[in-house]
Amino acid sequence: MLQLLYHGQIATFILFAISLIIAFTFHEFGHAYAAKYYGDRTAEQLGRVSLSPLAHLDVMGFLMALCVGFGYAKPVPTNPRNFTSPNASLVVVAAGPIMNLLIAVIAINLYMFGVNNGLEMFAGDGPGVFFTGLAIFNLIIMVFNLLPIGPLDGHYILPYLLPRKAGIAYQVLNERYGTMLFFGLILLSLAGLPIFHFVWVLGQSILPYITFV
Question: Which residues form the domain of 178?
Answer without folding.
Answer: 2-210
